[in-house]
């Protein structure tokens, strides 16, 4: 059983460790779960990920309870005649989970995405919880940024949101569908010319009379224009106008809003988001997302800072190179976790960005 120490890491460490355990078909023991958080141990969303992994793999588990600071997980997958039997395969199927709070549905989905590479049949997971909550990507980021980017390298996945869930009640419902996938090596070291900019602004139905979704979009557009988006078109191919603008009024148990800006360029996709808050003007929410987009446009990395660490498990499967804007704590912790599994990422720092590369991936 592989021993892992989560004393200086958070929930991302737990989710990635479970995914790697399944991909490698290796039992793991995680001690000091979320040890650097003010409330260590498994919270609702982490427990939901663990329970979903157990259900999908028919795994053996110990410590699957709220507050647990030690978890043992053994996927014990059966092999497939056409693949390395030591790795094992997943049969697919249809599953449902209820996080029970406004815990993040999108982080649950993030943990499951790499499993597409060992599926023998399609897998569908419907999750109830928070679709647009703090400290996690909004559901539109997953649908319009993360999945299209991963799809360029062979991941076959779709995501549908039936109902939005905002803090504090949650109650959102979304479905992730994965198909058996074979990933190509990831090559994201250079940013191509800017090709398109898209806006996805959402409001709960209870906020429709205040035109929150429209005002968020207007705030984002004003800030993008004011900070020179049109001027960039002369030098790097950025469009003079927004390619797609989608304003949505969604059913939800509680008020809330979100906005996602997607930027397409020659080699990939980047995304930037912000969530509505009580007392915060909707225009300012849009401006916050635009500010993040403008900072990225002023740099050279082909991916945004949030997708950077989310790509590392996929990079461990497929191999390749990714230039990230910064080595965040999440990136650093993810690299350490990969090393714990015998997967050696290398980092090349050029002073402004860092290239993370893996030459010997799991599938290699």
From TrEMBL:
GO biological process: RNA processing
Residues given in the record as ATP binding sites: 306-310
Keyword check for Glycoprotein: no
Gene Ontology CC annotation, any one: cytoplasm
Catalytic reaction annotation: a 3'-end 3'-phospho-ribonucleotide-RNA + ATP = a 3'-end 2',3'-cyclophospho-ribonucleotide-RNA + AMP + diphosphate
EC number in record: 6.5.1.4
Domain called RNA 3'-terminal phosphate cyclase: residue spans: 9-341
Region (Disordered): 220-249
Keywords: ATP-binding, Cytoplasm, Ligase, Nucleotide-binding
Residue ranges of domain RNA 3'-terminal phosphate cyclase insert in the record: 189-297
Localisation per UniProt entry: Cytoplasm
Biased composition (Basic and acidic residues): 220-235
Keyword Lipid biosynthesis listed: no
UniProt-listed InterPro entries: RNA3'-term_phos_cycl_insert, RNA3'_phos_cyclase_dom, RNA3'_phos_cyclase_dom_sf, RNA3'_term_phos_cyc, RNA3'_term_phos_cyc_type_1, RNA3'P_cycl/enolpyr_Trfase_a/b, RPTC_insert
A GO molecular-function annotation: RNA-3'-phosphate cyclase activity
Active-site residues per Swiss-Prot or TrEMBL entry: 330
Family as reported in the entry's similarity comment: Belongs to the RNA 3'-terminal cyclase family. Type 1 subfamily.
Main function: Catalyzes the conversion of 3'-phosphate to a 2',3'-cyclic phosphodiester at the end of RNA. The mechanism of action of the enzyme occurs in 3 steps: (A) adenylation of the enzyme by ATP; (B) transfer of adenylate to an RNA-N3'P to produce RNA-N3'PP5'A; (C) and attack of the adjacent 2'-hydroxyl on the 3'-phosphorus in the diester linkage to produce the cyclic end product. The biological role of this enzyme is unknown but it is likely to function in some aspects of cellular RNA processing.
Protein name: RNA 3'-terminal phosphate cyclase
Origin species: Halosolutus amylolyticus
Gene this chain is encoded by: rtcA
